[in-house]
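Inverse folding, one chain.
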């Protein structure tokens, strides 16, 4: 499912794609008996479009289409206006008509693919991107967005092939570089993913997400110092990034630096106090540091935020058990088993606590 931020970004890119092609499209329009009136309506639509008044732009494009129904250009422009309003079905109808009227124009297939992508209908989107690529093999954006659709459908290898071609056609396409790195990561090709994130950082040194993603991979490979350095740079670039604080905390905890881990978890909690895993991680670090009562407090808050997670109940049960409060430990292990009845580890912990209590 695409986020609202991605929808806005995709719509803006669709607008640019349409604008870049207007002159070429106009040159392909068939002659009119009375072109001046239709052209005047289109230009009025263009003016409203540039001012962001999509209702009026659509009205003027509609009049231009009434005067010249064979205008692929006006259908394409009205489709883009519909798309920017979020009316994707009408946008697709206009792009489809533009394709019928001018089947050699790759941009109409591309825009159709974008609209289907925004609807979450990725298979027809891929078909339209493929048609756009057939018509214009040098279209980097069509390769890039077909790659995104393939990746969303789980076809990482096909996605990588498309992102690679998009990068070849446009070496400064950092979006495709980032997406290819994520695709490599999905295939557990950590070295290739790190290479792409490193190139992305070279091209966009202020991209905090590239540092955070590279840090995650460095940690997975056991390169803890490099991971800490990357997370630290991500945090420097975006001090409000709670996730990078949490992930750096996990690296510190792995290396035995519990005080720094707790500090990072605490900052993550300050930035995102409704995120239960942050309390779980801090509780775990506190437990390892011997601060069991504070650990119980963190596990309790995590349970309040996410009462259906058996792992948290088990973690608090373990802390209660270490404190010698076997009744509460047993209650937590029982709650965990209700939520995960097939968990042998919890069942064993429950049996052990009962044995220690004497029943």
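Residues assigned per position:
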């Amino acid at each position: 499912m695409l986020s609202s931020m991605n929808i806005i970004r995709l719509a803006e890119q669709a607008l640019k794609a349409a604008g870049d092609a207007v002159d070429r499209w106009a040159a392909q329009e068939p002659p009119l008996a009375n072109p001046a009136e239709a052209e005047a309506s289109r230009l009025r639509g263009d003016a409203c479009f540039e001012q962001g008044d999509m209702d009026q732009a659509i009205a003027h494009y509609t009049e231009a289409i009434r005067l010249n129904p064979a205008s692929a250009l006006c259908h394409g422009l009205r489709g883009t206006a519909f798309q920017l309003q979020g009316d994707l079905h009408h946008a697709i109808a206009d792009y489809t008509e533009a394709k019928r009227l001018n089947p050699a124009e790759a941009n109409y297939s591309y825009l159709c693919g974008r609209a289907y992508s925004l609807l979450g209908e990725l298979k027809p989107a891929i078909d339209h991107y493929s048609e756009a690529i057939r018509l214009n093999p040098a279209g980097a954006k069509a390769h890039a967005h077909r790659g995104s659709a393939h990746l969303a459908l789980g076809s990482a290898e096909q996605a990588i092939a498309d992102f690679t071609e998009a990068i070849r056609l446009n070496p400064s396409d950092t979006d495709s570089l980032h997406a290819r790195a994520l695709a490599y990561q999905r295939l557990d090709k950590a070295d290739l993913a790190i290479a792409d994130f490193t190139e992305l950082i070279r091209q966009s040194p202020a991209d905090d997400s590239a540092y955070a993603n590279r840090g995650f991979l460095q940690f997975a490979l056991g390169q803890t110092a490099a991971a800490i350095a990357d997370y630290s740079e991500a945090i420097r670039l975006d001090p409000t990034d709670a996730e990078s604080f949490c992930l750096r905390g996990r690296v510190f905890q792995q290396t035995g630096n519990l005080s720094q881990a707790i500090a990072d978890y605490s900052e993550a909690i300050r930035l995102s106090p409704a995120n239960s895993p942050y309390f779980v991680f801090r509780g775990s670090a506190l437990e390892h540091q011997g601060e069991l009562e504070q650990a119980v407090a963190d596990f309790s808050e995590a349970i309040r935020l996410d009462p259906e997670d058996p792992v948290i109940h088990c973690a608090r049960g373990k802390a209660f058990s270490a404190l010698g409060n076997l009744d509460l430990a047993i209650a937590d292990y029982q709650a965990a088993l209700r939520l995960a009845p097939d968990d042998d580890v919890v069942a064993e912990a429950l049996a052990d606590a009962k044995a220690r209590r004497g029943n």
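The chain has a mean pLDDT of 91. The chain has 20 helices and no strands.
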